[in-house]
TrEMBL record, chain A:
Belongs to the zinc-containing alcohol dehydrogenase family. This is Zinc-dependent alcohol dehydrogenase. Its cofactor is Zn(2+). It comes from the Bacteria. Residues 26-145 form the Alcohol dehydrogenase-like N-terminal domain. One of its GO terms (molecular function) is zinc ion binding. Its EC number is 1.1.1.-. The keyword rRNA-binding does not apply. Residues 189-264 form the Alcohol dehydrogenase-like C-terminal domain.
Automatic annotation (TrEMBL), chain B:
Residues 1-10 have a biased composition (Basic and acidic residues). The keyword Transmembrane applies. This is Uncharacterized protein. Keywords: Membrane, Transmembrane, Transmembrane helix. It comes from Xanthocytophaga agilis. The chain crosses the membrane at residues 142-160. Residues 1-25 are annotated as: Disordered.
């Protein structure tokens, strides 16, 4: 089959000889991919920032597809079902899954205990091949996948596998109260979605910060929020303090993670020399811009070891930090309802639709922010017929 | 800070998910007490292991399912095995894995060549897209690269020549 093949930092290709996946566990299903996305989290892998990203791996944790084979124990899915597959691989029975913490499953990732299994990610997330391929193996098929309701657009469905729930959970973890000022760092797809969702929780003011004007303009339009380019601000933290009566924002959301720009020191130590697990600039700004007793919500991806974060300020300011991978399955019913009611319109963020065979160019465009790219969907040849 | 109530009617669904219970001190999880049951839950069947799977030393054995993509091999595999002797919070674990990743890139190129495939690094890096959407930047990069390489080669040549001369005298 054709599948994206990681060959090293900034190098990927569409490999035509990747073996088709097979059932390896009675609760597996094989899915023929109809849509897959490139996520901002994939860029962390693409840029070589996440340890144990092995050559030969196929990325892609956001995908929809048609079930073509099921294992002997699968009861809820049948061949022919068209499903959206949450990026978390979750068993549904461990203590964490029972609490709906599907991103923290204890039975899907032998290589690390901090996070559960994730499709198409570094081996620190279980070593599963992902959906930027024609076929993908889906473990615990009765737990994660959801049959796509007939009234749900396929483009909306694929965005429900990660970007929408992650943006929504970022706002939810902010514990937003009516009238709160919410600042979102990062105007990528997740940040834009977090800004949009902040209103659903009753925010009184939503501000988004980024370094690219085209993304800010998009965010302003899509999420009806204020948008500022930190390159035009001498000091983003000072600006945010001033614009919040010198108190700070009630809630700050870090939707950037380990590749944040804006600080030379962080860039050198985190992104260039890997002396820390990625640049923590956005996290610095979030912690320093939030009010005392405020809430910082983190959904940006960080590498799994030490970062130079201002933990002293966290203690001194009594900040509550909430962070997690999104529990997609928990949020799906609510998000589908929002889409049906027209409160959320995820597919509007899709700017690029690329054949899977052109995956190298697609990654490069997204990575370099060319052609006003916000969100890219890859379509395998078998889904174009 | 909070603003005075305004008219949010232009924002469809404003406040619809407001939850007074969602306090910072109230974790977003459905508390069931299962945290403390730990290993007493009915574990799903075990996936048979057909390739080498490394596992964190912070847990016993393998999880019920795991991925089989790109098993450890070669020198990078040796380093990865070493990395997994450290716990996840240890720098020895992560730095070893990063080193293994970098070596793995060269192993990938060697493997391509051994299988008779010459990797098209220009295309794999997506430079066709760079030429299409940022032609000027791409040309600038190439010209800068060639200039830097030429200057470096010139300096190197002069240094070697000087050294040779000194030696001959």
């Amino acid at each position: 089959m054709i599948a994206m093949n990681f060959r090293g930092p900034f190098r990927v290709r569409a490999d035509r000889n990747k073996p088709d996946p097979v059932i390896e566990h009675p609760e597996d299903a094989i899915v023929r991919v109809t849509r897959s996305c490139i996520c901002g989290s994939d860029l962390h892998l693409y840029h070589g920032l996440v340890p144990d990203t092995r050559v030969g791996t196929t990325f892609g944790h956001e995908f929809t597809g048609e079930v073509v084979e099921v294992g002997s124990s699968v009861k809820n899915l049948k061949v022919g079902d068209h499903v959206l597959v949450p990026f978390n691989i979750a068993c549904g029975v461990c203590p964490f899954c029972k609490q709906e913490l599907y991103g923290n499953c204890h039975e899907s990732n032998p290589e690390a205990t901090a996070v559960g299994g994730i499709f198409g990610y570094s081996h620190t997330a279980g070593g599963f091949d992902g959906g930027q391929a024609e076929y993908v193996r889906v473990p615990f098929a009765d737990v994660g996948p959801m049959v796509i309701p007939p009234d749900l657009d396929l483009d909306d469905a694929v965005l429900l596998t990660d970007v929408v729930p992650t943006g929504y959970q970022a706002a939810e973890m902010g514990g937003i109260k009516e009238g709160d000022t919410v600042v979102v760092f990062g105007a990528g797809p997740v940040g834009i979605m977090a800004a949009k969702c902040a209103w659903l929780f009753g925010a009184g003011r939503v501000i988004i910060i980024d370094q690219l004007d085209y993304r800010l303009e998009f965010a302003q339009r899509f999420a009806q929020c204020e948008a500022y380019n930190f390159r035009s601000l001498s000091d983003p933290v000072l600006f945010l303090k001033k614009t919040t009566d010198y108190f700070g924002a009630d809630v700050c959301i870090d939707a950037v993670g380990c590749e944040a720009a804006g600080s030379t020191l962080q860039t050198i130590t985190g992104r260039k020399t890997l002396l820390q697990a990625g640049s923590a600039t956005a996290l610095h700004w979030a912690i320093n811009s939030v009010k005392k007793g405020g809430i910082v919500s983190i959904v940006g991806v960080y590498g799994p070891t030490g970062n130079l974060i201002p933990i002293g300020n966290v203690v001194n300011k009594g900040i509550t930090i909430r962070a997690n991978q999104a529990s997609v399955k928990r949020l799906l019913p609510k998000l589908i309802e929002h889409i049906r009611a027209g409160r959320l319109n995820p597919k509007e963020i899709i700017t690029h639709r690329v054949p899977l065979e052109e995956v190298s160019d697609a990654y490069h465009i997204f990575s370099r922010k060319l052609d006003n790219c916000i969100k890219t969907i890859l379509i395998p040849p078998s889904a174009r017929a | 800070m909070k603003k005075k109530p305004e008219d949010y009617s232009h924002i469809k669904g404003w406040g619809i998910d407001a939850d007074p219970e969602n306090e910072p001190t109230y974790p977003i999880k459905k508390y069931t007490g299962d945290d403390h049951k730990r290993l007493s839950y009915a574990k799903p069947p075990q996936q048979p292991s057909k390739v080498e799977i490394l596992h964190s030393n912070e847990r016993p054995g393998l999880t019920s399912v795991f991925g089989t993509s790109s098993p450890p091999s070669g020198l990078s595999g040796l380093i990865r095995r070493h990395a997994f002797t450290y716990s996840e919070g240890n720098w020895g674990h992560w730095l070893s894995l990063i080193l293994a990743d970098r070596i793995n890139v060269w192993e990938g190129i060697a493997s391509d060549l051994m299988h008779g495939y010459i990797p098209n690094i220009f295309a794999e890096r997506g430079w066709n897209a760079e030429l299409k959407y940022n032609r000027k930047g791409a040309i600038q990069k190439v010209v800068t690269g060639v200039l830097v390489a030429t200057v470096a080669a010139g300096l190197l040549y002069r240094l070697t020549r000087k050294k040779k001369k000194t030696h001959w005298l």
